[in-house]
């Protein structure tokens, strides 16, 4: 089956903006069975913004009955851990904006999907920050601090993961996500009906002209981002080489000065350093 890759924001939102699919991910990745929602918001933002950085959640859903918030993001090529930690913390702060105390009225969960970067862990494609208070002696959770509320920030790396250390449910979702990246999947490999439904939603024939245009725009932005990052790295390497060369010349000048048989003018000529710089080195 030909499908649109889930690495595109527009396709990620098309699939998981469906409440039933969103809840299926919440159940399998966060082990939350009682997540009651009837809608998923796209590009959720807080007004006024929390902090000094404006941001939007790709997907946002709130279960007001059970006081649970779940946000999902599709990570981009240059996205960092700090960005998503900021998102998580802002959502936690926003939840108490109108509260009369510092207690959190809702549990905040943020799930980040990385399709471009390989997992930094040799054991799993799932990394978690759970904000729980632990005893430094044995690592046990002290529930008296936050009660049983468990704020979580979950990173899901689908490009390269070891399913041995993942649950069967999460491994299948991660594999399905990964399979879409080359635009072709075999739906018969999956028994989960929600994964089959996801494939149907993002099937190539079901992608609109507007969605294709957005995919093309995202692809152009990604390529531009890669080029800019590589130029930045090359500039850094060049500056590093120049800095190393400068240090080597100055070290040579110091050696000549220590010997004491050459004038500062002769040392400047021999090393290529300026006369002023050699004089400074001679005074150190």
Summarize the structure.
This protein has 284 residues and is an alpha/beta fold. 45% of the residues lie in helices and 13% in strands.
Counting structural domains, the number is 2
As a percent range, the share of helical residues equals 40-55%
Can you give the mean pLDDT?
85
Low-confidence stretches: none
The helix-and-strand class reads alpha/beta
Give the biggest sheet: 6 strands, mixed
Could you walk me through the main structural features you see in this protein, from its secondary elements to its overall organization?
The chain has 284 residues and is of the alpha/beta class. 45% of the residues lie in helices and 13% in strands. It has helices spanning 9-16, 19-30, 81-95, 143-146, 168-179, 193-201, 209-259, 264-271, 275-283, and strands at 41-44, 57-63, 68-74, 107-114, 126-129, 152-157. A 6-stranded mixed β-sheet has the order 1-2-3-4-6-5, sandwiched between helices. The termini are far apart.
Protein traits:
2 domains, six-stranded mixed β-sheet, 9 helices, 13% strand, 284 residues, alpha/beta
How are the SSEs ordered, and which strands pair?
Blueprint (H helix, E strand, L loop, with lengths): L8 H8 L2 H12 L10 E4 L12 E7 L4 E7 L6 H15 L11 E8 L11 E4 L13 H4 L5 E6 L10 H12 L13 H9 L7 H51 L4 H8 L3 H9 L1
Parallel strand pairs: 3-4, 4-6
Antiparallel strand pairs: 1-2, 2-3, 5-6
């Amino acid at each position: 089956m030909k499908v649109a890759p889930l690495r595109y924001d527009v396709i990620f939102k098309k699939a998981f903006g469906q409440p039933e699919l969103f809840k299926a991910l919440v159940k399998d990745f966060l082990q939350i069975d009682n997540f009651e929602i009837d809608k998923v918001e796209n590009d959720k933002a807080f007004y006024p913004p929390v902090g000094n950085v404006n941001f939007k959640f790709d997907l946002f859903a709130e279960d007001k009955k059970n006081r649970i918030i779940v946000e999902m993001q599709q990570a981009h090529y240059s996205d960092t851990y700090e960005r998503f930690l900021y998102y998580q913390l802002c959502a936690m702060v926003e939840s108490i904006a109108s509260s009369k105390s510092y207690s959190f009225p809702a549990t905040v969960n943020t799930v980040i999907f990385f399709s471009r970067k390989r997992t930094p862990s040799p054991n799993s494609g799932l990394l978690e920050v759970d904000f729980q208070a632990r005893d430094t002696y044995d690592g046990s959770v002290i529930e008296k601090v936050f009660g049983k509320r468990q704020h979580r920030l979950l990173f899901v790396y689908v490009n390269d993961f070891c399913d041995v250390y993942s649950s069967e449910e999460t491994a299948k979702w991660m594999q399905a996500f990964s399979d879409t990246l080359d635009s072709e999947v075999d739906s018969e490999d999956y028994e989960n009906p929600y994964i089959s439904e996801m494939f149907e939603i993002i099937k190539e024939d079901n992608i609109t002209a507007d969605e294709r245009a957005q995919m093309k725009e995202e692809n152009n932005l990604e390529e531009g981002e890669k080029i800019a990052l590589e130029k930045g790295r090359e500039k850094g390497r060049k500056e590093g080489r120049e800095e190393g060369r400068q240090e080597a010349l100055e070290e040579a000048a110091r050696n000549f000065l220590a010997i004491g048989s050459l004038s500062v003018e002769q040392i400047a000529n021999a090393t290529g350093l300026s006369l002023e710089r050699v004089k400074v080195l001679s005074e150190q």
